[in-house]
């Protein structure tokens, strides 16, 4: 990021949320880079940016789409890069229909199920039709969504049956990705940006100019985003819009380019790599689904076809190694490596589905591990009520957080909805160990694993999660030791024999060694694997997470490397270990031109050394190291062997960056603007108001405010958006108990513009009550010009900012206050199952909120006034006949497909 | 403002903690134009000086963390010093009652003053640290040494008086001789440190960044010695028969003249804004009463000093005047420190004046 | 004897025979992101108690309000609109056009000319200033000179430090500081609000405080150094070991720089010239002039508006600079009092004799 | 002894040393002269990583007498170069937080207060609950007969401050037990 010439921070507040990471932005800025911050609020990031562009929350796709349109229509794209490294020239299935043709929907939507059949989105098969996902065209969006498929492919592109595609290098065929893209974004104009985002043509021009001026051979632009993009009903598409733009401008795989995901937690990257997520197994292997993955063969074929390009073609080796790591000698070729030991999904099992299942008394027991759903989950009341239905609850944390004490002092106790004596939940609170009281690795946001050494033993009865779960596993296995029930075999056969220390606790390094994997047979039997390329599908290797293989190469904990400053190399590679294979920039083959030469001296990073016959440079080449720039292997080879010399995107099934996603996403192959679930603004681009494929929970305890055009929209006339402050940490479990942090931001507050303050009679430092269809909360008021009313479609839209760190209840918290998340409804992105919490509708009034029953009465009174029902906002297809402001032009004949590159690995700062 | 019928169910707005109240008060007029951060340009309905901005109306300097004990000490120190002088005068001019009463007054005042000072320390048990160093730059340090020196003399002198009053019944033994031998030198020693004791407190206040005190640095010593004179004289008039209070009455009148003149001069010579706290609020009231009482006491002394009741009444008026002077000036200083206006405006003015005079190399702000 | 005003080497002035370069901060507010890491790192290192009454102040994101006994770094937040920005630019430009040399006679001509003819960029509609304030460690420190006990002293690094084991809390230094930095720590914590949680326990536990059992919870920790004047020590204890002060070390954007004061001033001048060259005439330095009322400060700041906007005095003057004159006046007054008394007795005696 | 300490009287040192104004070396106390940072006197220093956000800043943890006495940035880290944000800077307080819990607590069904429980019993009880629930809520197949082999009765929500090794064991154990509702903050 420090190498960038232009940095666009959007959907995130980097200076505030990642102050230390921001030093690289500061450094780039000091060297002359332009820093632009696009955000609903003027934040600490804006304060030090060259320019702040206020935007309406949730309208980012319009803005970026318009930049894409600007780049294409003014011919500002990086031709050589786009032609060689992206799927711009690839042809798409002729049956594909764009949103331009179908009033905001893509072809294949089933209004009954709310899911897309994605088969028409595929690349054109030279033999006719489209190239399906392996395993046939039968997987519908439904199932993909249920598996949160978008995230399942987080580490690279989803699979294709094969990689033989048709290309038109002139990009003139209307079925090329490029032409589809061009048409798709043709109506994303500066005028539309003005209308929907509230951004003036002048500001738009500044952004578009800065980005394009700072892209090309000699310059690179970098995007940084955070939850301002992900927490939307089509959040994955926000990121893809940026990815498309970055690919068009040639800013992926190059120093100072890329899209930086700015993640919020110490190991949030790690907990998706080695996921505690329902839909994934370690290394982004999907959890098997009932019906589709009944056999191991079905499963591995669907993960990565042997005929596709790139490293996912070896998915079988990764899967077998994982199963060998878990079930050891019990996993054999005969029993499909114990594949049947894995439980199966038949629908989503995310946090919010779990909440609903709790309310239905289907979930009995719940482990809450260093997490505070009573404060941190959207629709907090629903989350707390759900917990009151549990039979037992285990909370492991440092402090008595709200999630451990809701039965005693939660908001529902105060309002009288719950009575402590009536709550049958058995609650275990177990004190946890802090980060210095245990050894282990965190994976930071750039995929770097860093080992923490243990400083002291946990005090008192505190215990690390590693020790706890190891012990729990031992107890469970002991209790089942005599069982002959086949369902207990997976537990009894599990490899659970880690070397123990003096206190009987497992050695964390031995777990890391298992994750890394080892050879099981041959000369090297017992030795650690040094790269995932050594993994085999024949049972001769084991490894718990293939992308982490190499972290324990040579039996050395590479994550613990601590050479000061990372050593002399520019990639600072002697500090920690980056997955995969210690690469610091992914897809870095793209940092050289198709001939293997750096695009420019200034931006050189990896290049082809013709004499040595290999790729060399400042980083580990993310490419077969001896694959010459112009080599053209037989595509039928499949896997890495099939990568041509100019296929830098080695995890994508066709080796190209995807401008258009022929598969892998469930809500459209191209990012399209829809309004948030509840929005006082009508979608001017399409008749379709909300994302048709969003995941909805139409329930009485999860009502939505009327959207533009519906009755009652003026009852909740304002947009609220939630965010973090630098002084606190998420739901406050690690900050509201700390005096030094609490004093810096002691009270829950809301931020409003002077105009809104005048409109509602709000006074700086006074109180306000904010009411949504879910809840009403109170907050102190900060009146500030940092909040800007936006002119949207001719009317003024006020936005209210709400930090979400406070909660009610908890013991010994130094500060407490109402939780912003209580206001939030639950509606999810179908790709990721992440909730929309960056935009919602509300009203605001001066004064504190009522207490007790009267609080519920207030919320009800608003609901009645707005006549909200479970139907509100929960209709999939918006009636195209309804009045809209800017009807789309008559549609042209459908052009064919393009592609897209989801680039969640980001790139280096 | 009202939301709905639920208003009655809302918790009452808290009355505001101690600090919150202080905040609003210190903001005072400032708050209205400081509601928008330090952007003083707009919305400045009541700002006299359009250039004046501050940080949310928060003070720039901090007031001394002194309670009223210190204001009391200013008074008591003055009384002690003046009494020390009167005692020496009595000693030298052979006025035994004046001498005795003044010595006792001096000891009582300096004793009470010392207690007040120690009580006001953050760590009273460490009061002896005051004699850890001799800090020539520190009025507090010099004052501590002066106070100690004065107390030594005053103590010995007063001890003699007490011993005599009890009919030599103090259990002193052979020390009585020593005590008697030291009596006269001690009385003179105390007198030597008497005026520094009365005067140094003015420097103690002036040698601060507290705007009103610092601005008064030229004339505050004169106000303080005058006030000390009239107060100690007033006390003598209360304690001592008129037969021996002639000098005290003279001193009282001179003190009143000095006090009124020096105070007026002081107000005139100060930056008008920095002088404001002397005229406003509690401090202003106290200082107005102080002047009135001084004049009344002076006139009373002049006209009826020979009559004991009038002398006593005048003496009390003078004592009260001195108390009010000290408390008034003390209070005005504390108030001036709490309002950024008194720091910023005079400073801006003097900076501008220097610049206008062509002195541009001594600003803390540089390009 | 040492000096009371004007440029000098403070350590030499205090008769240190160890020859150490003067240390100081350069706080460049133009790159501050207002994260307050400096405040926290400072408190954590110095084990200062939590401050304030845990209520929102309504002052933008500033909830610690000012420097004080327990807050030795304070980040100010100022929100400004177009007009205020314009005025800041003008006042900054006026400084440049005064042609004020940064140091009398010092080779500073290169910094003066930088910005005058550069067309300023468009004035933005809005800006949010953030600035981390700290003790100035003045060349002539009012607090130090008025301290009666020697608790405040000048270190070999020319910084000004309170010795907590000496201070008796007389409070003179508090009034002696023209910047409102030093403060006496109150012995009680703020009264608990209508909130749970024992406020006493919110203070940092003494090192080695018992933990690992419930007893740790009930052990009420006393406010450390109550009743004693407290302020930034520039982490003297770290400096003697060659370490960087906690705030400067943690500052994510290097807005707080630490080093030899001469280097800091040089960097500051370079930076202000750079900003002027970009047309940011609002940039100016604070404390870099040894001819100012405190003889220059050890902590130098780059500000983007007038000092008072940040709560800093526009023309501070160390009160002790006028001390000789004050002593003179006091001496005169004392003499007057002696004279008055003498006169009273002389006249009385005459009258008495008559 | 008394004589020596009298000679140490700063007033005498003032005039002996030439520091007549009592500004410098003349007035230092023995404590001041012996000052040492606790980072220098720590028993050991351990390299660690900040537990808050995902930047992954390096930390140095100073330990004295088996207590953490200081946590500050690790200047060797190329990621953070020794810097920390306010949260990272407060890490020592996270470890030694005034409200931190050191005891297992147990709330029985319908109970109004916490009770204490030893850890061993607690883990045993949790294992029992886990197995009971699993038994009660086991699903062998879906309605069409495809294998499910899972329990819908046990769920988990893990914070993203868990180590990779911890996540791995949790995933491994829960998956083997057939629990599928394993989620973490990455999704929130």
Automatic annotation (TrEMBL), chain B:
GO cellular component, one term: plasma membrane
Membrane topology designation: Multi-pass membrane protein
Region Disordered, residue ranges: 1-45
Domain of life: Bacteria
This protein's record includes keyword Cytoplasm: no
Coiled-coil stretches noted in the UniProt entry, renumbered to this chain: none
InterPro entries hit by this protein: Electron_transfer_protein, NrfD-like
Keywords from the named record: Cell membrane, Membrane, Transmembrane, Transmembrane helix
Compartment list: Cell membrane
Entry's family note: Belongs to the NrfD family.
Name listed for the protein in its UniProt record: Polysulfide reductase NrfD
Species whose genome carries this gene: Nakamurella aerolata
Gene transcribed to yield this protein: nrfD
UniProtKB/TrEMBL annotation, chain C:
Cofactor(s) required for function per UniProt: [4Fe-4S] cluster
Residues that hold [4Fe-4S] cluster 1 according to the record: 32, 35, 38, 251
Main location group: other
A Pfam family recorded for this sequence: Fer4_11
GO CC field: cell envelope
Subcellular location(s) of the protein: Cell envelope
Entry's transmembrane regions: none
Co-factor remark: Binds 4 [4Fe-4S] clusters per subunit.
Highest taxon in the source lineage: Bacteria
Keywords: 4Fe-4S, Iron, Iron-sulfur, Metal-binding, Repeat
InterPro entries listed in its UniProt record: 4Fe4S_Fe-S-bd (IPR017896), 4Fe4S_Fe_S_CS (IPR017900), FDH_Electron_Transfer_Unit (IPR051555), Formate_DH_Fe-S_su (IPR014603)
Residues that bind [4Fe-4S] cluster 4: 147, 167, 170, 173
Binding locations of [4Fe-4S] cluster 3: 135, 138, 143, 177
Gene3D superfamilies registered for this protein in UniProt: 3.30.70.20
Sequence segments annotated as region (Disordered): 188-220
Keyword Cell inner membrane assigned: no
Coiled-coil stretches: none
GO biological process, one term: cellular respiration
SUPFAM superfamilies linked: 4Fe-4S ferredoxins
UniProt binding sites for [4Fe-4S] cluster 2: 42, 232, 235, 247
GO molecular function: 4 iron, 4 sulfur cluster binding; metal ion binding
4Fe-4S ferredoxin-type domain mapped to chain residues: 23-52, 126-157, 158-187
Record's protein name: 4Fe-4S dicluster domain-containing protein
Naturally occurring in which organism (per UniProt): Nakamurella aerolata
From TrEMBL, chain D:
GO cellular component annotations of the record: cell envelope
Keywords, in A-Z order: 4Fe-4S, Iron, Iron-sulfur, Metal-binding, Oxidoreductase
Record domain 4Fe-4S Mo/W bis-MGD-type: where: 43-99
Molecular functions per Gene Ontology: 4 iron, 4 sulfur cluster binding; electron transfer activity; molybdenum ion binding; oxidoreductase activity
Subcellular location: Cell envelope
Domain of life (superkingdom): Bacteria
Keyword Glycosyltransferase in annotation: no
Cofactors demanded by this protein: [4Fe-4S] cluster
Major subcellular location class: other
Keyword Oxidoreductase part of the UniProt annotation: yes
Pfam family for this entry, one: Molybdop_Fe4S4
Gene Ontology biological process terms in this record: anaerobic respiration
PANTHER family: FORMATE DEHYDROGENASE-O MAJOR SUBUNIT (PTHR43598:SF1), TUNGSTEN-CONTAINING FORMYLMETHANOFURAN DEHYDROGENASE 2 SUBUNIT B (PTHR43598)
Family: Belongs to the prokaryotic molybdopterin-containing oxidoreductase family.
Name used for this protein in its record: Dehydrogenase
């Amino acid at each position: 990021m420090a190498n960038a010439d232009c940095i666009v921070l959007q959907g995130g507040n980097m200076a505030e949320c990642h102050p230390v990471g921001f030093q690289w932005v500061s450094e780039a800025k000091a060297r002359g880079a332009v820093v632009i911050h696009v955000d609903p609020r003027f934040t600490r990031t804006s304060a030090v940016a060259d320019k702040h562009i206020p935007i309406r929350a949730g309208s980012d796709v319009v803005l970026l789409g318009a930049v894409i349109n600007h780049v294409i229509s003014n011919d500002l794209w990086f031709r050589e890069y786009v032609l060689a490294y992206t799927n711009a020239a690839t042809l798409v299935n002729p049956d594909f229909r764009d949103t331009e043709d179908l009033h905001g929907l893509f072809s294949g939507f089933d209004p009954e199920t709310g899911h897309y059949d994605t088969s028409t989105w595929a690349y054109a098969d030279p033999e006719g039709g489209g190239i399906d996902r392996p395993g046939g065209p039968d997987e519908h969006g439904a199932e993909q969504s249920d598996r949160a498929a978008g995230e399942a492919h987080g580490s690279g592109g989803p699979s294709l049956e094969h990689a033989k595609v048709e290309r038109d290098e002139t990009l003139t065929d209307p079925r090329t990705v490029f032409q589809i893209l061009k048409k798709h974004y043709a109506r994303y104009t500066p005028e539309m940006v003005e209308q929907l985002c509230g951004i003036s043509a002048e500001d738009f021009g500044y952004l578009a100019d800065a980005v394009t001026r700072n892209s090309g051979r000699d310059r690179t632009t970098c995007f940084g985003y955070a939850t301002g993009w992900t927490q939307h009903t089509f959040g994955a598409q926000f990121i893809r819009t940026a990815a498309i733009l970055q690919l068009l401008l040639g800013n992926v795989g190059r120093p100072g380019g890329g899209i930086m995901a700015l993640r919020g937690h110490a190991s949030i990257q790690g907990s998706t790599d080695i996921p505690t997520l329902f839909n994934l197994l370690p290394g982004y292997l999907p959890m098997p689904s009932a019906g589709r993955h009944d056999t191991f063969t079905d499963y591995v074929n669907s993960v990565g076809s042997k005929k596709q390009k790139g490293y996912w073609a070896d998915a079988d080796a990764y899967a077998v190694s994982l199963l060998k790591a878990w079930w050891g000698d019990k996993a054999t070729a005969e029993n499909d490596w114990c594949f049947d030991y894995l439980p199966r999904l038949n629908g989503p099992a995310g946090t919010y589905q779990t909440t609903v299942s709790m309310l239905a008394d289907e979930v009995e027991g719940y482990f809450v591990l260093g997490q505070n759903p009573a404060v941190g989950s959207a629709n907090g009341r629903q989350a707390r009520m759900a917990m009151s239905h549990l039979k037992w609850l285990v909370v492991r944390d440092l402090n008595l957080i709200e999630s451990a004490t809701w039965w005693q002092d939660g908001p529902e106790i105060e309002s009288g909805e719950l009575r402590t004596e009536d709550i049958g939940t058995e609650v275990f609170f177990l004190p946890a160990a802090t980060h210095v009281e245990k050894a282990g690795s965190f994976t930071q946001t750039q995929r770097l694993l860093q080992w923490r050494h243990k400083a002291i033993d946990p005090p008192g009865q505190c215990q690390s999660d590693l020790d706890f779960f190891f012990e729990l596993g031992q107890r469970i296995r002991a209790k089942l030791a005599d069982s002959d029930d086949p369902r207990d075999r997976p537990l009894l056969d599990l490899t659970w024999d880690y070397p123990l220390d003096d206190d009987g606790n497992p050695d964390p390094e031995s777990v890391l060694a298992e994750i890394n994997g080892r050879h099981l047979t041959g000369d090297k039997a017992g030795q650690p694997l040094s790269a995932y390329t050594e993994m085999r599908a024949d049972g001769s290797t084991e490894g718990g997470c293939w992308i982490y293989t190499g972290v324990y190469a040579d039996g050395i904990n590479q994550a613990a490397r601590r050479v000061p400053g990372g050593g002399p190399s520019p990639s600072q590679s002697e500090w920690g270990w980056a997955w995969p294979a210690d690469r610091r920039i992914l897809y870095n083959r793209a940092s050289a031109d198709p001939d293997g030469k750096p695009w420019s001296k200034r931006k050189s990073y990896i290049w082809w050394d013709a004499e040595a016959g290999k790729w060399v440079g400042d980083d580990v080449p993310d490419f077969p190291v001896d694959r010459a720039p112009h080599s053209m292997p037989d595509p039928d080879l499949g896997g890495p062997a099939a990568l041509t010399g100019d296929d830098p995107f080695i995890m994508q099934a066709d080796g190209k960056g995807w401008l258009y996603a022929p598969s892998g996403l469930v809500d459209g192959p191209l990012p399209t603007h829809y309004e948030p679930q509840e929005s006082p603004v009508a979608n001017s681009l399409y008749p379709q108001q909300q994302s048709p494929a969003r995941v909805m929970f139409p329930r009485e305890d999860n009502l939505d405010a009327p959207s533009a055009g519906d009755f009652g929209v003026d009852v909740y006339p304002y947009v609220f958006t939630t965010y973090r402050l630098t002084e606190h940490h998420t739901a406050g479990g690690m900050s509201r108990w700390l005096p030094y942090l609490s004093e810096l931001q002691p009270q829950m507050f809301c931020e409003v513009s002077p105009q809104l303050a005048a409109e509602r009679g709000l006074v700086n430092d006074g109180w306000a009550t904010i009411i949504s269809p879910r809840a009403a909360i109170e907050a102190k008021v900060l009146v500030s010009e940092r909040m800007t009313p936006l002119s949207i479609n001719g009317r003024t839209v006020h936005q209210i900012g709400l930090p979400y760190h406070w909660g009610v209840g908890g013991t010994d918290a130094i500060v407490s206050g109402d939780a912003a998340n209580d206001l939030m409804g639950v509606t999810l992105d179908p790709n990721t199952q992440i909730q929309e919490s960056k935009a919602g509708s509300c009203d605001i009034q001066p004064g504190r909120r009522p207490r007790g029953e009267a609080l519920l009465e207030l919320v009800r009174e608003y609901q009645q006034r707005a006549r909200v029902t479970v139907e509100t906002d929960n209709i999939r297809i918006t009636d195209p006949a309804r009045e809209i402001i800017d009807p789309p032009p008559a549609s042209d004949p459908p052009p064919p497909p393009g592609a897209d590159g989801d680039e969640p690995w980001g790139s280096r700062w | 403002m009202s939301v709905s019928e639920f208003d009655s169910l809302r918790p009452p707005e808290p009355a505001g903690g101690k600090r919150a109240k202080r905040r609003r008060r210190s903001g005072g007029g400032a708050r209205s134009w400081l509601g928008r951060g330090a952007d003083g340009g707009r919305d400045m309905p009541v700002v006299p000086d359009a250039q004046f901005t501050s940080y949310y109306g928060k003070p720039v300097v901090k007031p001394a963390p002194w309670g009223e004990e210190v204001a009391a000490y200013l008074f008591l120190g003055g009384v002690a010093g003046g009494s020390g002088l009167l005692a020496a005068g009595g000693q030298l001019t052979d006025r035994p009652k004046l001498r005795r009463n003044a010595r006792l007054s001096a000891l009582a005042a300096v004793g009470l003053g010392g207690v007040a000072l120690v009580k006001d320390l953050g760590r009273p048990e460490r009061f002896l640290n005051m004699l850890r160093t001799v800090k020539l730059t520190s009025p507090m340090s010099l004052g501590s040494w002066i106070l100690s020196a004065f107390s030594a003399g005053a103590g010995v002198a007063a001890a003699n008086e007490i011993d005599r009053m009890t009919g030599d019944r103090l259990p002193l033994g052979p020390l009585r001789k020593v005590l008697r031998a030291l009596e006269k030198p001690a009385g003179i020693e105390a007198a030597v440190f008497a005026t520094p004791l009365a005067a140094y407190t003015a420097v103690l206040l002036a040698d601060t960044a507290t705007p009103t005190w610092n601005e008064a640095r030229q004339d505050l010593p004169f106000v303080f010695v005058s006030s000390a004179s009239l107060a100690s004289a007033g006390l003598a008039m209360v304690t001592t028969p008129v037969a021996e209070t002639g000098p005290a009455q003279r001193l009282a009148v001179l003190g009143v003249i000095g006090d009124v003149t020096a105070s007026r001069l002081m107000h005139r010579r100060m930056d008008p804004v920095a002088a404001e706290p002397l005229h406003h609020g509690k401090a202003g009231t106290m200082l107005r009463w102080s002047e009135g009482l001084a004049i009344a006491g002076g006139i009373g002394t002049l006209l009826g000093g020979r009559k004991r009741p009038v002398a006593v009444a005048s003496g009390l008026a003078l004592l009260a005047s001195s108390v009010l002077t000290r408390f008034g000036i003390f209070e005005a200083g504390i108030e001036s420190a709490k309002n950024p206006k008194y720091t910023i405006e005079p400073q801006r003015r003097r900076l501008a004046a220097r610049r206008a005079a062509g002195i541009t190399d001594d600003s803390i702000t540089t390009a | 004897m040492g000096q009371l005003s004007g440029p000098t080497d403070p350590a030499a002035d205090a008769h240190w025979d160890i020859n150490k370069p003067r240390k100081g901060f350069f706080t460049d507010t133009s790159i501050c992101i207002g994260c307050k890491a400096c405040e926290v790192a400072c408190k954590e290192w110095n084990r200062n108690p939590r401050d304030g009454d845990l209520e929102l102040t309504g002052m933008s994101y500033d909830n610690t309000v000012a420097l004080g006994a327990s807050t030795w770094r304070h980040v100010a937040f100022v929100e400004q609109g177009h007009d205020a920005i314009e005025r800041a630019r003008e006042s900054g430009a006026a400084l440049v056009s005064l042609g004020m040399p940064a140091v009398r006679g010092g080779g500073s001509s290169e910094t003066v000319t930088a910005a005058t003819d550069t067309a300023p960029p468009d004035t933005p509609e809005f800006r949010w200033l953030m600035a981390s304030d700290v003790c100035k460690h003045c060349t002539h420190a009012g607090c130090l000179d008025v301290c009666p006990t020697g608790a405040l002293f000048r270190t070999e690094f020319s910084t000004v430090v309170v010795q907590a084991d000496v201070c008796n809390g007389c409070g003179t230094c508090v009034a002696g500081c023209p910047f409102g930095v030093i403060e006496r720590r109150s012995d009680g914590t703020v009264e608990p609000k209508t909130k749970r949680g024992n406020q006493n326990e919110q203070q940092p536990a003494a090192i080695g405080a018992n933990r690992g059992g419930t007893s740790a919870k009930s052990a009420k920790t006393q406010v450390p150094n109550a009743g004693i004047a407290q302020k930034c020590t520039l982490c003297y204890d770290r400096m003697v070991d060659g370490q960087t002060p906690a705030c400067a070390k943690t500052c994510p954007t290097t807005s707080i720089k630490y080093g030899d004061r001469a280097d800091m001033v040089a960097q500051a001048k370079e930076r202000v010239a750079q900003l002027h060259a970009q047309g940011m005439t609002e940039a100016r330095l604070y404390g870099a002039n040894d001819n100012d009322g405190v003889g220059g400060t050890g902590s130098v700041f780059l500000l983007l508006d007038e000092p008072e906007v940040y709560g800093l005095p526009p023309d501070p003057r160390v009160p002790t600079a006028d001390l000789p004159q004050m002593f003179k006046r006091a001496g005169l007054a004392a003499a007057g009092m002696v004279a008055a008394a003498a006169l009273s007795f002389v006249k009385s005696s005459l009258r008495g004799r008559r | 002894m008394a004589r020596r300490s009298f000679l140490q009287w700063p007033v005498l040192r003032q005039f002996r040393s030439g520091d007549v104004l009592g500004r410098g070396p003349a007035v230092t106390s023995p404590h001041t002269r012996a000052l040492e940072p606790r980072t220098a006197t720590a028993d050991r220093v351990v390299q660690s990583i900040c537990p808050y956000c995902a930047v992954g800043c390096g930390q140095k943890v100073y330990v004295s007498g088996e207590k953490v006495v200081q946590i500050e940035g690790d200047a060797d880290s190329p990621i953070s170069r020794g810097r920390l944000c306010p949260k990272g800077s407060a890490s020592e307080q996270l470890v030694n937080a005034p409200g931190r819990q050191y005891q297992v607590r147990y709330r029985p069904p319908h109970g109004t207060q916490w009770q204490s429980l030893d850890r061993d019993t607690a883990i045993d009880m949790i294992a029992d609950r886990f197995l009971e629930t699993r038994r009660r809520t086991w699903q062998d197949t879906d309605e069409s007969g495809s294998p499910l082999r899972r329990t819908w009765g046990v769920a988990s929500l893990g914070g993203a401050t868990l180590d990779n090794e911890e996540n791995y064991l949790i995933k491994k154990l829960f998956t083997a037990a057939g629990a599928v509702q394993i989620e973490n903050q990455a999704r929130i």
